[in-house]
Amino acid sequence: MPSISVILPTDNRRRWLGEAVRSVLSQRYADLELFVIDDGPPTDRSRRCQTTRA
Question: DSSP secondary structure string, 20-51?
């Protein structure tokens, strides 16, 4: 099966970021990669994404 890339843009959506990331990571398809794109100023979103990284 081909690998799948999921691109998740975020900007001031801290409230839903964790839920969105968990949703992608809970999929049964094993060969996927997740990119969280945030071109805003550094915030705690960066830390949250780093700690979720596998």
Answer: HHHHHHT-S--SEEEEEE--S---HHHHHHHH
Q: Which residues contact 42 (CB under 8 A, 6 or more apart)?
A: none
Which residue has tokens 């979720």? Answer: 52
Residue in the block written with tokens 């959506």:
13
Q: Which two tokens stand for residue 2?
A: 């081909």
pTM for this entry: 0.65
Can you give the residue ranges of every domain in the chain? 4-52
The count of other CB atoms within 10 Å of the CB of residue 36 is: 19
User: pLDDT tens across 16-34, in order?
Assistant: 888 998 999 899 988 889 9
Residues in the chain, overall count: 54
